[in-house]
């Protein structure tokens, strides 16, 4: 009977993901990102509304979806960015955000509004780069100089909070967390060295190239194996898989070399086609709407703090390199948060240190940022539209 319930829930979750894609296709000017439709559909399916099922019913698939969110974000991020001005300013902006968050949340903690000091403070410094990627890529905001600054700001806002989670909020203590970070770094280094060791003309290289398409799909299967292995290991040792997935994505682009565009398209198809929508629908199902309704001002408070603490520093940090409009876009993108918030609130609730109403309000505020900020950032974009090609009189023009 339990299996039937899980399958029924998965069918409903999949239906929501299809419906969201259809709505976006039918109404391309709909000012609502697809991820918001997925979250809203999850809320409708969850215990707070229709009670079709719970997030626990699809937890394994949702965990793989969360891993894909971070893997795809890491895959998009070029490590060389951090040696450029964009990376240095992104690090400075996040540091300022962290200091502001510690100060503000310290005051809230002293006033009895917040119990889980560190999870809430880190939550105010996060950026949902993996969530934003489809919107930014579709609207062309990742191209050009602005795209470099957006990617760097988003990457830092996703990577550094996850590092802090692993070190300070791991269930096995800081020593075990540092050991695990070293293991992940060693894995990344090993993958990089293996890539150098595999010559392009070797038998193994030829086998990989020959089997990366058609029915074999070697590179795609190996990537999925790596991701699921990371999730399985972190489940076993009570660590979070998001850091490993993010770093794995950064290493993979370098590892596959010239096949990177083809692998990216396949990962998009598998991730965004199935696993990532399941994660967001499950996140909506897990949202405690009752707690938000009982204390709506907490959601408003966290929403304002996300914009001020995470987005505000961008207006100053990028003052000499970006015009005001692009700085505003960077601030809005930086202040958009959700996946890390979900992980933080789950950790806080499991440890018993976070109030349920604060957990719901944080995730709810993250949902609002995903709803509003990407749409506003796109609305601020004033790049001229590309002119439509004019066919020659008498038919399509050909080479002279």
Count of individual helical segments: 17
Query: What distance separates the N and C termini?
Result: 70 Å
Structural class by SSE content: mainly alpha
The residue-averaged pLDDT reads 79
Give me the CATH fold name: Na+/H+ antiporter like fold
Q: What is the CATH class name?
A: Mainly Alpha
Number of strands: 0
Largest pleated sheet: none
Count of the domains: 1
Oligomer: single chain
Strand content: under 5%
User: Would you identify the regions where 5 or more consecutive residues have pLDDT less than 50?
Assistant: 385-400
CATH architecture: Up-down Bundle
Helical amount:
over 70%
Q: Give the CA-based shape.
A: globular
Instruction: Supply Rg.
Output: 22 Å
Task: Please characterize this protein's 3D structure.
There is one protein chain. This protein is mainly α. Mean pLDDT is 79; it is low at 385-400. It has a single domain, classed as Na+/H+ antiporter like fold. It is built from 17 helices and no strands. Helix 4 (85-110) packs antiparallel against helix 14. It starts with a helix and ends in a 21-residue tail after the last helix. The radius of gyration is 22 Å and the shape is globular. It is found in: Membrane. Its main location: membrane. Keywords: Antiport, Ion transport, Membrane, Transmembrane, Transmembrane helix, Transport. Residues 19-376 form the Cation/H+ exchanger transmembrane domain. Pfam families: Na_H_Exchanger.
């Amino acid at each position: 009977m339990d299996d039937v319930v899980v399958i029924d829930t998965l069918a409903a979750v999949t239906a929501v993901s299809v419906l969201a894609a259809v709505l976006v296709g039918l109404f391309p000017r709909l000012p609502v990102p697809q991820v918001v439709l997925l979250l809203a559909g999850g809320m409708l399916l969850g215990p707070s509304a229709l009670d079709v099922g719970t997030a626990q019913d699809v937890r394994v698939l949702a965990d793989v979806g969360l891993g894909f969110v971070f893997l795809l974000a890491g895959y998009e991020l070029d490590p060389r960015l951090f040696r450029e001005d964009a990376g240095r300013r992104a690090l400075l902006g996040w540091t300022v955000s962290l200091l502001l968050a510690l100060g503000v949340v310290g005051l809230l903690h002293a006033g009895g509004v917040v119990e889980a000091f560190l999870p809430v403070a880190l939550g105010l410094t996060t950026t949902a780069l993996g969530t934003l990627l489809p919107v930014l890529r579709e609207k062309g905001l990742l191209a050009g100089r602005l795209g470099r600054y957006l990617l760097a700001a988003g990457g830092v806002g996703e990577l550094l909070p996850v590092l802090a989670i692993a070190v300070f909020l791991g269930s096995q203590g800081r020593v075990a967390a540092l050991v695990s970070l070293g293991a992940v770094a060693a894995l990344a280094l090993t993958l990089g060295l293996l890539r150098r060791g595999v010559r392009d003309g070797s038998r193994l290289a030829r086998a990989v190239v020959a089997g990366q398409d058609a029915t074999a799909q070697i590179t795609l299967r190996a990537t999925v194996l790596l991701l699921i292995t990371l999730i399985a290991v972190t489940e076993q040792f009570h660590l979070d898989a998001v850091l490993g997935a993010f770093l794995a994505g950064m290493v993979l682009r370098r590892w596959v070399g010239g096949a990177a565009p083809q692998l990216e398209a396949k990962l998009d198809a598998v991730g965004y086609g199935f696993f990532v929508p399941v994660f967001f629908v499950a996140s909506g199902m897990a949202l405690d709407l009752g707690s938000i309704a009982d204390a709506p001002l907490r959601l408003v408070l966290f929403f304002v703090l996300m914009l001020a603490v995470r987005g505000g520093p961008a207006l100053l940090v990028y003052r000499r390199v970006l015009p005001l409009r692009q700085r505003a876009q960077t601030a809005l993108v930086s202040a958009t948060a959700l996946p890390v918030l979900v992980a933080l609130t789950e950790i806080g609730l499991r440890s018993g240190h976070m109030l349920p109403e604060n957990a719901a309000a944080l995730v709810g505020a993250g949902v609002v940022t995903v709803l509003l900020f990407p749409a506003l950032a796109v609305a601020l974009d004033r790049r001229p539209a590309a002119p439509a090609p004019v066919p020659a009189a008498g038919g399509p023009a050909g080479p002279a």
